[in-house]
Amino acid sequence: MPGPRNIAVLGSTGSIGVSTLDVIARHPDRFAAWALSAHRSVDALLDQCLRFAPRYAVMTDADAAERLRQRLPAELGTEVLAGAQALVEVAAHAEVDSVMAAVVGAAGLPSTLAAARAGKRLLLANKESLVMAGHLLMQAARDSGALLLPIDSEHNAIFQCLPACERGLPGLAGVDKVLLTASGGPFRTWSAEAIAAATPDQACAHPNWSMGRKISVDSATLMNKGLELIEACWLFDLPPERVEIVVHPESIVHSLVQYADGSVLAQLGNPDMRTPIAYGLAWPERIDAGVAPLDLVSLARLNFEAPDETRFPCLRLAREALALGGTAMAICNAANEVAVEAFLAARIGFGTIPRIIEATLARVAVEEPVSLAVVEAADDRARHCAAELVGQLVSRNGAARESTWI
Ligand code: MG
């Protein structure tokens, strides 16, 4: 019996990272947390190091790394590394078997790409990597033979419902389309006026999933579903017209695959990220994830409705970026990250998020994403543009005059 597989958990103090460590801790004979990483959450990473004694602890913020170094007991044997490049090195390290890519946002792209290039089992929770650089990431995985397992719950569900092909990985034989479910977020039943005036705490109060603040806001604007549409097109090599979005407020059906013969296969379960994480860690086996069994009788009803792209324009904007192609998706993602951050800092209103994204998409030129450098340059230009638009708004003292620039 071989020893446990070494797992690098990138973004270990975030919501996905914590759930991953929970599953790892249930199976010490199978998995070892070999590397952990955080941006600057020193206390949380220290606790995780004391519990899991990883070989490496990476902090992308250098000051935070120094503070962690001073507090870690030497006998633990954990080496602290600092900076974004250390994340890339750990992701591609020869002793790592699997990489959980759970860094939030565009910051996760270089390490995710490094894991794909190094041929790792890549557990992909960082959807922004595919949104920004889907072509590069999929090509890198093909070239190196990296096994790419989607952790995003919808894509994990689709992966589970697709037909297996010769290599054990999904194929598309007989598939008509995939149906991507969306909870609709906390504002699903709100009027456009009420949505426009929503506060950060209201946006972060997701009805079903417990998640970080950035993805909670994305879920409230439906940008999360827009990013997931792009993610699905890359992962499963599908044109956008073969991916349908269905609002399903209970978040029990995590997504579905519709076949040529009229069959529709769905994956159901309680909304708990430990299910897709355990699936990714153990694939093709199935292991205990600590998730409560589904009680269909107590659920009684499952509801479905069409998404509303008028009240939730971010979904339309993501579709437009996908249709534009090239670096448009990276531009859309960067503008969204800047706008969400400004919203969470109470600098702009909720209704201004899509307007910042739309204006940025109109202002930044789209290019062919031939290299990581081109993608990162587009990301950078879009961030500057979006930040400038936010700054103009704030200096004009609020939303009253935003129609003057958008
Ligand atoms: Mg998802």
Descriptive overview:
There is one protein chain. With 406 residues, the protein is α/β, with parallel strands linked by helices. It has 3 domains: 147 residues, Rossmann fold; 161 residues, no CATH class; 82 residues, Orthogonal Bundle (Rna Polymerase Sigma Factor, Chain: A). It is 46% helix and 15% strand. The chain is built from 17 helices and 11 strands. It has a 7-stranded parallel β-sheet with strand order 4-3-2-1-5-6-7, sandwiched between helices. The protein has a 4-stranded mixed β-sheet with strand order 9-8-10-11, with helices on one face. Helix 14 packs parallel to helix 16. The N and C termini lie far apart (62 Å). The chain binds magnesium ion (MG).
Biggest sheet overview: 7 strands, parallel
Number of domains: 3
Spell out which ligands are present: magnesium ion
Low-confidence sequence ranges:
399-403
Q: What is the ordering of alpha helices and beta strands?
A: EHEHEHEHEHEHEHEHHHHEEEHHHHHH
Radius of gyration: 21 Å
Strand content: 5-15%
Average pLDDT over all residues = 94
Straight-line distance between termini = 62 Å
Helix proportion of residues, in percent? 40-55%
Strand arrangement across the biggest beta sheet? 4-3-2-1-5-6-7
